[in-house]
Amino acid sequence: MRNPELVGVQKTASPVLKAKALDNRLPDPILGDKYAEQAMRHLDPDYDKRRFGTSQMGLAAVVRAKAHDDWARSYLADHPDAVVLHLGCGLDARVYRIDPPATVDWYDLDYPAITELRRQFLPPREHYTLIGSSVTDLTWLDRIPRGRPVLMIAEGLVPYLTETDVRRLLTSIIDAFPAGRIQFDTVPVWAWRTSKWDPTLRKYGAQFRCGFDDPAALAEWHPRLEFVDEAPMNDSPVLTAKAPAEVRRMFRLLNLLPGMKRSTRIVRFWF
């Protein structure tokens, strides 16, 4: 079967998946995601023949995923009746890594071309639904059961939306559910404004569309929304413990530069 064509930001799904697949080939992986490796092998049978896995970009994607996984497991342990909205899911196998109980209804949402690839590469499971839609077309919310706690996960999504779209998304979810957690990652304003010159983003035809120097301030968007905390990223203990020496040195140097230590923020809120 011919794979659907990915355009723009959709193309970033492949390198992120590749990082997670290569992580699984390490003797002591961070994620240990066998499904990422299987899916990447279908997408590119020779993906592991080229150097990538120890790069800054690759390791950052894996560390970011680990932080989101840990938060999600914690929330679902306390809320086994939750609805999970995994938005901009890409080719990530989070639902298989976390393996939530049957009492959780999990929804993965991304563009139709991405969800078609997921159907080809990843197995079906009960209490799991794929939705092929733009995140910003909020009619998809009509398909989600209400009256239960919700966990919204948006890994590598928010910077590609406009601030207006982010605000509509968050406030619509808060208004739709009685309680929940929201977790996502952001970039600062300087990273957003300079993203048009970022060589990695340009390679995939993508560009950031918003940034926040103080993402905790987003709690002001809705009276029920409260900031909880943020997870370490560029100075993550996992990164320090697992990264090859040359990558650790790179991150130590980057963290000395103003604005770089927290250039990616993984944040969570509750309502």
TrEMBL record:
GO terms for biological process: methylation. Coiled coil: none annotated. The lineage of its organism: Bacteria, Bacillati, Actinomycetota, Actinomycetes, Mycobacteriales. InterPro entries: Ppm1/Ppm2/Tcmp (IPR007213), SAM-dependent_MTases_sf (IPR029063), TcmP-like (IPR016874). This is Class I SAM-dependent methyltransferase. Keywords: Methyltransferase, Transferase. It comes from the Bacteria. GO terms for molecular function: methyltransferase activity. PANTHER family: S-ADENOSYL-L-METHIONINE-DEPENDENT METHYLTRANSFERASE YKTD-RELATED (PTHR43619), S-ADENOSYL-L-METHIONINE-DEPENDENT METHYLTRANSFERASES SUPERFAMILY PROTEIN (PTHR43619:SF2).
